[in-house]
């Protein structure tokens, strides 16, 4: 082989080696890009799962509690604004008339401070404080028990005025006639607070735990409650928020003179 031929051969081999190196590096770069793409895809999937999990859990934390499913009027304990239970002497031996103004019209009730002095004293204080202003009645029952439950400013069934007290004037036979105004409570007999219920049809309630305080009677406006009940419960249930919303706008109480 001539010197020129050998030089051309060496030059060709060097060129082939450089091309091989170039192709190998190009393949490595392509492989690296694929790896990065796969890693990013995995991170996006994991991030999406974490985000979804956070959203679900956050939703659970902030979910509004459903109406109590108990077989009787109930109020769940919850911290609320600090208030002090007023003395019974504010209402003892007296009769009061309260006008509960709702978005459906006024409901008038007579309060018995002789039979339920502590309850009526509390009612007087909360009415004077505007505690129930613009609060919705959060629970209606339409099967077996026939009551409309109100008195929770949060509208959830979990609110209370920051104090509790015991049962007064509960019927031993568990009978609550149409038009009865009574207090809702938890299983704790000392958990009477701000939630009350109006009986729109004769109702028999359990006496276990002491029953429920009767502290007044509806004297006018019961037809408003009955119309609300006739519209039923949201979702076609028998216990829950009224399908026809009803809210307390204000409560005004005056003493009834003999």
TrEMBL record:
It catalyses: [protein]-peptidylproline (omega=180) = [protein]-peptidylproline (omega=0). Residues 62-87 have a biased composition (Low complexity). Residues 62-88 are annotated as: Disordered. It is an enzyme of class 5 (isomerase). Residues 105-253 form the PPIase cyclophilin-type domain. GO terms for molecular function: peptidyl-prolyl cis-trans isomerase activity. Keywords: Isomerase, Rotamase. Pfam families: Pro_isomerase. Its EC number is 5.2.1.8. PPIases accelerate the folding of proteins. It catalyzes the cis-trans isomerization of proline imidic peptide bonds in oligopeptides. Belongs to the cyclophilin-type PPIase family. This is Peptidyl-prolyl cis-trans isomerase. It comes from Oryzihumus leptocrescens. The lineage of its organism: Bacteria, Bacillati, Actinomycetota, Actinomycetes, Micrococcales.
